[in-house]
Amino acid sequence: MRLAGKRALITGGLGGIGRKVAERLAAEGATLALADAAAGESPVADARCYVADLARVSECRRLADEVRADLGDIDLLVNCVGVFERSEFDETTEENWDRNVDINLKGVFFLIQAVAPQMRRQGGGRIVNITSIAASQGFATAQAYCAAKGGLLNLTRALALALAPDGINVNAVAPGFIRTQMTEHQWTDDAFIGSLGRMLATRKGYMEPDAIAAAVLFLCSDDAAHVHGVNLGVDDGWLAGISGAAFT
Ligand SMILES: NC(=O)c1ccc[n+]([C@@H]2O[C@H](COP(=O)([O-])OP(=O)(O)OC[C@H]3O[C@@H](n4cnc5c(N)ncnc54)[C@H](O)[C@@H]3O)[C@@H](O)[C@H]2O)c1
User: Fold this and answer.
1) Residue of 182, 184, 208, 231 to mutate, ligand 1, most atoms within 8 A of C-beta
2) What would the pLDDT profile of 140-180 be if each residue is shown by its tens digit?
3) pTM
4) What domains sit in the chain, N to C, each tagged with a CATH number?
5) CA-to-CA distance for 20 and 23, rounded, in angstroms?
6) Which is catalytic among the residues 50, 145, 206, 238?
7) Phi-psi region of 124 (alpha: psi -120 to 50; beta: other; left: phi over 0)
8) For this structure, is 50 an active site residue?
């Protein structure tokens, strides 16, 4: 058991990736707090579930306080919260921009700000953010999402430097295309999956969320004790480049 005795807070814990992260961390002995925007069935029997709108700073602070009061100090914080909302240039509204940025970026920062002091007091901790291939590549129809995820990537690096002296490792996992509710409009589209398969060197269309959970577990484990500020791509080679098959 690689995480025996550890207390983990997973945001977006009832989402596709969050659920698998929860299962994986629990299987390694962690005690879990799962936070999401609405109540739902927990993937892990004895996890505590919390409802919080993590676009709001006051909710981030309330969540950190409640989890600490219920479970004690948090050792591991995994930010799986997120929304993908299309935003084409001429159609992007302030509301659309704010949802993408507040949920994917602002709330993540303020939850870390609320949790890190208790990690500092106990001598360290692990924080893992879920970025995206869209943190490093532009997608023309998702400008606000790209801005938020690119911001989250560089925020991860800045926080890694700020918190490393306190024994806190801050890292990110950058998923490629994962089969979850967020991407249902795409993985149910055969033409989309076909073109993705030609573009990726692995010839695969999509990955399952377990692939991300495995990378999160590594970054939470003692094996990653000296890893700070990385953005670990789990993307079937997407960011390595476009496969030759895409041009044939
Ligand atoms: N699925 C993919 O292909 C993919 C690719 C790259 C990055 N990601 C990132 O991975 C993370 C998890 O995505 P997923 O695929 O599991 O999506 P998902 O929609 O299944 O899960 C996201 C979860 O976040 C929760 N959430 C949304 N807004 C919230 C709010 N304001 N407060 C609290 N919770 C809120 C949702 O309720 C949901 O449970 C996200 O950050 C996403 O951007 C996903």
Assistant:
1) 182
2) 999 999 999 999 999 999 999 999 999 999 999 999 999 99
3) 0.98
4) 7-180+208-236 (3.40.50.720)
5) 5
6) 145
7) left
8) no
